[in-house]
Amino acid sequence: MKEIMSGNEAVARGAYEAGLAFASAYPGTPSTEILETLGTRYKDDLYSEWAPNEKVAMEAAIGASVAGVRSFAAMKHVGLNVAADPLFTFAYTGVTGGMVFVSADDPGMHSSQNEQDNRNYAKAARVLMLNPSDSQEAKEFTKLGYELSERFNTPVMLHMTTRVCHSKGLVELGERVEKPIVPYEKNIKKFVATPANAKVMRVQLEDRLAAMEEYACTTPINQPEYNGTKIGVVTSGISYQYAREVFGEEASYLKLGMTFPMPRNLLKEFASKVEKVYVVEEMDPYIEESLKMLGIDCIGKDIIPRYGELNTDIVRTAVTGEKKEVLTSDVKAVMRPPVLCAGCPHRGFFYTLSKKKGVMITGDIGCYTLGSAAPLNALDTTFCMGGSVSTGHGASVALRNAGSDLKVVSVIGDSTFFHSGITSLIDAVYNKGSNTTVILDNRITGMTGHQENPGTGYTLMGQETTEVDIPALCKAIGMKEENIYIVNPNHMKEVRKALDEAIAKDEATVIITKWPCALKRFSKEDKERFDLTPKKCVVDPEKCVMCKACVKTGCPAINGTGDHVVIDAASCTGCTVCQQVCPAGAIEEVAK
Amino acid sequence: MSEVKNILLVGVGGQGTILASKILTEGLVDAGYEVKMSEIHGMSQRGGNVSTQVRYGEKVYSPIVGVGEADVIVAFEKMEALRWLEYLKPDGKMVINDFEIPSAPILMGVAEYPEGILEILNEKADTLVFKAGEIAESLGTGKAMNIVLLGALVKAMKVEGVDWHKAIRNNVKEKFIDVNIKAFEAGYAL
User: Fold this and answer.
1) How many CB pairs below 8 Å do chains A and B form together?
2) In chain B, whose CA is at the least distance from the CA of A310?
3) Considering the domain boundaries, does residue A330 fall inside one?
4) Has residue A336 been placed in a domain?
5) pLDDT score, position A323
6) Are residues A357 and A210 located together in one domain of the fold?
């Protein structure tokens, strides 16, 4: 049977067919749908969970492997930075049950703060790497990954990119094969990485790498396709699809489905049979460097871009120099940037914060990064998950010690706080920093499309569980009770008062805003705790003076282009932020 | 059937492009074509522009349509049609929903919605322009706007031997099947 699947759905299918027993991940575009698929479609056959962060997910999967079952973890490229620590040692110990993890890279930064080529991680950590180029391969390589993981005693990295994750194609389905748990045997020399044991493991790892490289030279997923002898193209992953369209039937191809360890003898053999070698790959010259180390002359990054996504056009232009004539217009479309949604509980908070003078605002990763956009412009920095609180702590101490009056506000979402903001807040409290941390608790992981997190009270598989009590947690790590403020972000006076008080203090403070995401499917707890009856705001055209104060809140439901302001009734949720900023009393909240 | 055809569905988050492309893809697959469909997820729910790329033929490699390569572009919103113009083949066809969704800079008054979009596009390319929302309303639900556009797209693709009604039935709730099939036929009849 065949089914149309995205690369992500196909990975989930492959893991399911391979007898997967345990999966863990933290959501991150473009990897999120893998665990969503495992946690819904295959939940009767295997266990899956959202972990608070990628390191936890990786470690949980390692634990399940050591315990004897096939396990899985998934993350976006930056997630592997977080999970790298356990991975590098897991490469030494090896597995009991097979372990495969996905690194989903985002060349072109469709939905990421940076672009990184995580193939370098496989090389640095010395773990076997597979590189699928479409949905069918995503499924097949996942299954193969489990076999190879157990055969070579190594974790296996499945390197995906946005276009492999989110493109759909037909996938041939197979049956699930159950894998019984491997009976547990205590093995200190294998799994306890003390220096004495790790030194032995390090040597064994080299032997494994040699065996893996031998396999890489003969595996069917690394077979050359010999056509003409003039041009030979070495490529891998999604880049193969572009290269195949550009170079056509005449050229020969070495499409590498496994690129760590690099099949060096195969590269030499292929290069010897063609006159000219091209290397087509996205981002870093990863394959190209291997070829050049072998002394093989090749054309790669001297013509193919080093950053951004590739596509057939870019590769064709790079190779032939031809530029296509295209239809153009002098009138250009206006940008359509993403904005905080109508009714977003972050708007009232950010609007209020944007009016505060003398503050530096350290930001984080999530929907609320959009608080940096016009007209709010209410962020000064964004680096990484959890970074707002610790960068804010460092800045607050540096400013204070230098005698500056500038105060620091750190803004972080609930899921990001659980991810890696807690340890940062401990730093701020314990080391007597003076930044005000604002935890925007909208009771869901918003940006990636509404995944449960430790604050929602539900698991990925739909079970009820215990919510983390954020105020109690802050108290437990040493935050003084009088320094903890809990506010409704839609009530701007309340927000202003809390900000004024907290920022004025010369010690670490926390403001917790509580209101569910406007797009969330509300849980029964949400309905009990918040007044969520449908409402909307309407403008009285007689009273509207067109001062556009409401427009400056940046709400996409508000249209200020006509004779008077109009609020779109369908998208308005009645958050009343516009009503609160209207000086003419022209906006009224009514039932929807 | 050997030539690969390229289709682009472009619009604004929440307009139903994803469902339309799903039905399109399923119909083509069912008729025996190899199909690759690519969409960008992430921030589209937050008011951004969305695009789905569909390529079909006997053998398809890349899932992405390049500039100047689209045989048909269906734009769910006028300004999006303008944005994607350079992706259209010079002899390609553009199906355009005569509908405006102002973006954030326009709502805030820092930019103006471009005037004369339809005239510009008409001059540059073969276009089919209509108000899909009004057609859907007349059939009982404005929500079927995306399926009206799908019908017009399918006709412009000149593809035959596909059971579109079946693909619709497989992808919408039972009680909405009839209205969506009517919407599809209304679009196809344009």
Assistant:
1) 168
2) B64
3) no
4) no
5) 85
6) no
Residue B36 with chain A: CB contacts under 8 Å: 134, 167-169
Closest CA to A551 of B77, B14, B102: B102
Residue from B3, B64, B99 whose CB has the most chain A CBs within 10 Å, to mutate: B64
Q: Evaluate whether A465 touches A413 at the Cβ level (below 8 Å).
A: no
Contact status, residue B98 vs residue B130, Cβ threshold 8 Å: yes
Q: Cβ contacts (< 8 Å) between A375 and chain B: which residues? A: 108
The pLDDT of residue A44 is 97
Residues in chain B: 190
Q: What is the pLDDT of residues B49-91, one digit of tens each?
A: 889 999 999 999 999 999 999 999 999 999 999 999 999 999 9
Confidence (pLDDT) at B43:
57
Is residue A372 a contact partner of residue A340, using CB atoms and an 8 Å limit? no
Listed residue (A421, A460, A427) closest to A441, CA to CA: A421
Give the CATH number, domain containing residue A288.
Answer: 3.40.50.920
Structure confidence by residue, pLDDT tens digits, B150-184: 999 999 999 989 999 999 999 999 999 999 999 99
CA B115 – CA A334 distance, rounded (Å): 11
Which pLDDT band holds residue B1 (cuts at 50, 70, 90)? very low
Would the CB atoms of B41 and A559 count as touching at under 8 Å?
no
| Residue A354 sits in the same domain as residue A448 | yes
Please check whether residue B85 touches A, CB under 8 A.
yes
Residue A329 forms contact with B (CB below 8 Å): yes
- Residue B105 touches partner A, C-beta closer than 8 Å: yes
Q: A548 and A525 in one domain?
A: no
Could you report the per-residue pLDDT of B90-138, keeping only the tens digit for each? 999 999 999 999 999 999 888 999 999 999 999 999 999 999 999 999 9
The residue assigned the tokens 């449960």 is A452
Is residue A333 a part of any domain in this protein?
no
Burial of A481 (C-beta count, 10 Å sphere; 0-12/13-18/19+):
exposed
CB contact A564 to B (< 8 Å): no
Q: For residues A389 and A479, what is the distance between their CA atoms, to the nearest angstrom?
A: 14
B19 touches chain A (CB under 8 A): no
Residues A27 and A169 grouped into a single domain: yes
Q: Is residue A432 part of a domain?
A: yes
Residue (of A351, A345, A355, A283) closest to A314 by Cα position: A283
Query: Using a CB-CB distance cutoff of 8 angstroms, which residues of chain A are in contact with residue B86?
Result: 326-328
Assess B64–A contact: CB distance below 8 Å, yes or no. Answer: yes
- Chain B residues within 8 A of A449 when measuring between CB atoms: 41, 45
Regarding pTM above 0.80, the answer is: yes
Q: Which domain holds residue A284?
A: 220-320
CB A280 within 8 A of CB A244: no
Q: Which domain holds residue B43?
A: 5-189
Phi and psi at B38, nearest 5°, equal -135, 135
CATH number at residue B11: 3.40.920.10
Question: Rounded to a whole number, what is the distance in Å from the CA of B188 to chain A's nearest CA?
Answer: 25
The tally of domains found in chain A comes to: 4
For chain A of 592 residues, list the mean pLDDT of each consecutive stretch of 10. Answer: 96 98 97 97 98 98 98 98 98 98 96 96 98 98 98 98 96 98 98 98 98 98 97 98 97 98 98 98 98 98 97 95 91 92 96 97 95 92 97 98 98 98 98 97 93 97 97 98 98 98 97 96 96 96 97 94 94 96 97 92
- Asked which of A216, A237, A252 is the last residue of a domain, the reply is A216
pLDDT, position B14: 83
From the CA of A70, how many Å to the nearest CA of chain B? 29
Residue A453, chain B, CB below 8 Å: the answer is no
Of the partner residues B43, B67, B79, the one whose CB lies closest to the CB of residue A324: B67
**Cβ atoms of B73 and B94 closer than 8 Å:** yes
Q: Please say if the pLDDT value at position B41 is more than 70.
A: no
pLDDT band at B40 (very low <50, low <70, confident <90, very high): confident
Pick from B43, B103, B108: CB nearest A111: B43
